[in-house]
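quick one before i forget lol
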Amino acid sequence: MSISAPSRRMAPRGLLTSLPIRTQTRAFTSHPHRLADNDTQPPPSSRPNPFLAEYLRNNPSAPSTPAPPRQEDTLGDLPATSIFEDDRRAAQQAAAISARDASGGAKEMKHGMAGRNAQNMLRVTDPNPNARERFERKKVIQMVRKGGRLSKQEFVKKTEREHLVKSENFKTSVKKLGALARQIQGKRIDDAIAQMRFSRKKVAAEVLRQLEFARDEAVVMRGMGLGGVEVAQEAETLNASGEEVAGATETAAQTKKRDEPVEIQLKDGKRHTIENRSDIYIDQAWVGRGPYGQLPDYRARGRVFVMRTPWTSISLLLKEESTRVREYEEREAKRRRQRMEKVWVHLPDRPIQTKQQWYSW
């Protein structure tokens, strides 16, 4: 006998403790389909499959045996869903390719590109083939129209060297770093390094390291500041043919003339003497504003303000002194042309076209 929930609420507490608890037992009946001994039906693997039988009747050439089951994961092996499965598969492919190459069945892979598909890499190296073909066609048409002649900008890019370097962000403001940028702009790289070495500014040490890095990178990557080593080597090379000897002698004369000191006038009017045209100088130096940081500013009465600390970077454009000589010669040629245009010359004799006493236009 069981007491329902409403009766349990209405019955007093003592009655509940004094009433006996009776449990109703029920005989356990076994289920034949759950017991292996009472299961008279064949296992699912041995039962005939009507769909498979119909498929085999329609396709006599199909194999009657089913596909082998998927190989289970062994102990200590990676599962199929592991993120390292692709790497292992690539390693297996590379090993198979190397074994096949060793046996002479395939061509040798270049640059260790085992396991890579060139068609898939084209999506990254050449994402828009049509645009690339149009660009190449446009450049070929331009070359044919110009007859192989280069523009002034292209000629300067091919004959002169320059290097652009941008530094990381320094913990300083634009106002403080801009003063140092104006100080080193226009100076030779060695003079700028000397200026930063003896500067009392805190950020001058960072600018000094950036200048040394830019100088070394320009020498290694662009070959700047080498002093015409290639031309001197060509001049010293004397072959058996007379034409090459004459050419080498002419190159040596040009090198000697180029190594002579030359005095030029800069844009600001100052006189500047250039002893070696391959020396590196800072053509431009500018600063760029970076992100702002946050620092606590503890004040009176338990207040805390947030200070915005600025970060700034500096960019340097390095060129050789030969560029400064060319710019000076171009300014002088332009000044001479303007001066000649202002000089008065005698008007040429013109025949009278009409009968008036004055010229008609």
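fyi The chain has 13 helices and five strands.
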